[in-house]
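Dear H.,

Thanks for agreeing to be a second pair of eyes. The structure we're designing against is below in token form, covering all 274 positions.
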């Protein structure tokens, strides 16, 4: 049984205060204290962070514990170690997917200074009977309708972060080829095909990745994924596509911001560097 930590920062120095008694390893408590401070907006990229010796002294823990905490924070991309100089707050760019407005993964990644990449893993034309039932219903497909199915892997700075399954109405994209999907679907539909997208209907959940999905995303079998799926709608309120997006659970988290009696609420899936 150990004392739960509460952090306080004054002049860049961390201190530990007593609190409720909980059964949690000391290094996890200290890591949470440091992580809350790093993600709470009170520090800036490039600020110096306490060293292993400083953490051990200020929090009354062993050097080994302090080292484990700092190593974990470096692995999470929150800190960076500069050999011979010290520990510093990392420039941890955040890539998010909004659940309240449509946005392009490609465009948003570029806006954040990240290099987007899309790999088309699968591409084929399917009849109505070859489409999963939930997808066909969500798109309102009728007998005789056809879709273009594409499986795509989305990467940011070379790291796979989203595995995407997308079904697009074939009559909306005549002449569509595999290579056309190595970029933004939004830009493709609006720019080449004149399809004005007006909204999406989405549902979100979580599940474990199957072995082949995990391999494509570069994680172990059974790893967690956030799942967002639903149709994208055109001006006539008809579904142009249906998508199932698998977000790597170790890179994304769901963040919800709510203000009482205000309209500034937001829900986002945020990606942080590994």
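And this is the sequence the design step returned. I haven't edited it by hand at all.
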């Amino acid at each position: 049984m150990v004392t739960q930590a509460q952090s306080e920062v004054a002049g860049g120095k961390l201190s530990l205060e007593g609190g409720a008694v909980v059964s949690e390893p000391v290094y996890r408590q200290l890591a949470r204290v440091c992580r809350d401070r790093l993600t709470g907006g009170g520090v800036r990229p490039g600020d110096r962070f306490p060293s292993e010796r400083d953490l051990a002294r200020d929090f009354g823990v062993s050097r080994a514990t302090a080292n484990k905490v700092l190593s974990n924070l470096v692995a999470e991309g929150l800190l960076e170690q500069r050999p011979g100089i010290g520990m510093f707050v990392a420039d941890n760019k955040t890539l998010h997917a909004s659940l309240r407005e449509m946005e392009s993964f490609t465009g948003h990644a570029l806006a954040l200074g990240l290099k987007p990449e899309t790999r088309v893993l699968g591409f084929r034309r399917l009849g109505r009977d070859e489409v999963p039932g939930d997808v066909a219903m969500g798109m309102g497909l009728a007998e005789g309708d056809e879709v273009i199915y594409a499986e795509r892997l989305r990467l940011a700075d070379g790291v796979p972060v989203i595995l995407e399954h997308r079904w697009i109405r074939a009559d909306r994209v005549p002449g569509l080829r595999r290579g056309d999907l190595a970029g933004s679907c939004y830009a493709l539909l609006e720019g080449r095909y004149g399809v004005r997208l007006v909204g999406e209907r989405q549902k979100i959940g979580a599940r474990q990745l199957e072995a082949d999905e995990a391999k494509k995303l570069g994680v172990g079998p059974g790893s967690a994924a956030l799942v967002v799926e639903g149709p994208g709608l055109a001006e006539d309120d008809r579904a142009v596509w249906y998508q199932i997006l698998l977000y790597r659970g170790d890179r994304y988290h769901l963040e919800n911001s709510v203000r009482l009696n205000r309209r500034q609420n937001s829900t986002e899936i945020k990606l942080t560097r590994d």
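Two observations from my side: The chain has seven helices and 17 strands. The chain has two domains: 2-89, 95-271.

Warmly,
E.
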